[in-house]
Design brief:
Blueprint (H helix, E strand, L loop, with lengths): L2 E4 L2 E4 L4 E7 L8 E7 L6 E7 L4 E3 L7 E6 L4 E6 L8 E7 L10 E6 L1
Parallel strand pairs: 2-10
Antiparallel strand pairs: 1-3, 3-8, 4-5, 4-9, 5-6, 7-8, 9-10
Amino acid sequence: VQLQASGGGLVQAGGSLRLSCVASGSIETFLMMGWYRRAPGNQRELVASITKSGVTNYADSVKGRFTISRDKAKNAVYLTMTSLQPEDTSIYYCNSFPPGNYWGQGTQVTVSS
């Protein structure tokens, strides 16, 4: 299975984006999926996760602003990001949780102030 993240872009502070992660096979392979991000000079961090049954969890820094969702029929996981701030600027990746060998190129999100 390969995971392809997309949907990033340049947005002004306060704006919104929706990231998509499409799997080449069934996402039911994964008990839990996650969105991760890595800003320049920082380590990669888990932003949000979702179980097969839809239980979600978020990093404190994005709680209330980001929403993770999962569409079994489309083999996709989404990250809806609102009230974006410059500190959200990162490359965003999707992967299983715990992360497996499914890192793709990610998608760049840039938030201007």
